[in-house]
């Protein structure tokens, strides 16, 4: 009995710790992108990363004799994976490689909870005054952060466009996965998702890059962290949280990421944020927190 109780307590502790671990791991993704940028072109790096994940998850799936998706499930997983992996990672890595500060990139794409609330409103869910106020504050926060960097190198139409694309694709991919394929084996499912991401990314890499990879210790370290920790840990934790909670509840954890990312970027790269940017981050965090609060129930018609 004591063993059973201890197992349950450990399992409960792991569940409570999942969001914290996810946020800490996810925040490193922007720093890794900045760290690897001098040694590899972004899409070329991502292709190697995707291939590494496919090999890793394929080996794990074969050893465990995991169940493989069939029929429409394969297509649904591929579509969700293209949004969550190829579109999101391609946008973020492309923006950071083009010079966008890691902290700013993190802030823009981590407004995903605001966009999720907007999509919910467009599909008929009721948004209360608190949620509307949160959306306005979130937008104001982005404006403040961007305005403080307009005269610096790295904030351009290209980098903002890439981060906006990343924001849109991960939001759509997350909602799509929650709707059409919430339950799947994490090993075989990620083989499908990252294979689809390779097929989508490869033509763009051929068109815009020369497949330059300087196999320095820094690049090898960034690649290893990306495959084993960011994907093996971060993406898997995200999928586990999506199984247990609504998409809006899960994505609300993203608003914790920008502050951690900015701190890491400050320590590792000496990036600075002006007072407008600091205020903007605070306002954006408040806005996202308000926008993702539970909306009042939708009134039901009389019976």
Automatic annotation (TrEMBL):
Source organism, top-level taxon: Bacteria
Keywords associated with the record: Membrane, Transmembrane, Transmembrane helix
Major site of localization recorded for this protein: membrane
Endpoints of the signal sequence: none
Ranges where the EamA domain occurs: 20-146, 165-292
Matching Pfam families: EamA
Topology in membrane: Multi-pass membrane protein
Localization in the cell: Membrane
Keyword Membrane among record annotations: yes
InterPro entries per the UniProt record, alphabetical: AA-Vitamin_Transporters, EamA_dom
Keyword match Lipid metabolism: no
Membrane-spanning parts: 12-37, 43-64, 76-96, 102-123, 130-147, 153-176, 188-208, 220-240, 252-269, 275-295
Family label: Belongs to the EamA transporter family.
Protein name: DMT family transporter
Native source species: Pseudonocardia abyssalis
Taxonomic path: Bacteria, Bacillati, Actinomycetota, Actinomycetes, Pseudonocardiales
């Amino acid at each position: 009995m004591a063993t059973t109780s201890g197992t349950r307590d450990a399992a409960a502790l792991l569940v409570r710790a999942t969001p914290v671990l996810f946020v800490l791991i996810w925040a490193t993704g922007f720093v890794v992108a900045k760290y690897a940028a001098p040694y590899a072109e972004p899409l070329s790096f991502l292709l190697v990363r995707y291939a590494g994940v496919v090999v890793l998850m394929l080996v794990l799936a074969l050893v465990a004799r995991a169940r493989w998706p069939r029929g429409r499930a394969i297509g649904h997983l591929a579509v969700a994976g293209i949004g969550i992996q190829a579109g999101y990672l391609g946008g973020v890595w492309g923006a950071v490689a083009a010079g966008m500060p890691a902290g700013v990139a993190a802030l823009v794409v981590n407004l995903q909870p605001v966009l999720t609330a907007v999509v919910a409103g467009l599909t008929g869910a009721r948004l209360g005054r608190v949620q509307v106020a949160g959306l306005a504050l979130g937008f104001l926060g982005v404006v403040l952060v961007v305005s403080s960097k307009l005269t610096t190198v790295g904030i351009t139409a290209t980098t903002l466009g890439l981060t906006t694309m990343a924001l849109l694709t991960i939001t759509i991919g997350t909602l799509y996965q929650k709707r059409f394929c919430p339950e799947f084996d994490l090993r075989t499912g990620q083989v499908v998702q990252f294979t689809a991401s390779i097929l989508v990314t490869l033509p763009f890499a051929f068109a815009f890059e020369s497949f330059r990879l300087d196999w320095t210790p820094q690049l090898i370290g960034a690649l290893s962290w990306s495959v084993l920790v960011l994907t093996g840990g971060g993406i898997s934790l995200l999928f586990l949280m999506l199984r247990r909670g609504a998409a809006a509840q899960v994505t609300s954890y993203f608003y914790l990421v920008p502050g951690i990312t900015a701190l890491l970027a400050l320590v590792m790269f000496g990036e600075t944020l002006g007072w407008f940017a600091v205020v903007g981050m605070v306002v954006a965090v408040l806005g996202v927190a308000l926008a993702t609060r539970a909306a009042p129930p939708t009134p039901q018609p009389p019976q």
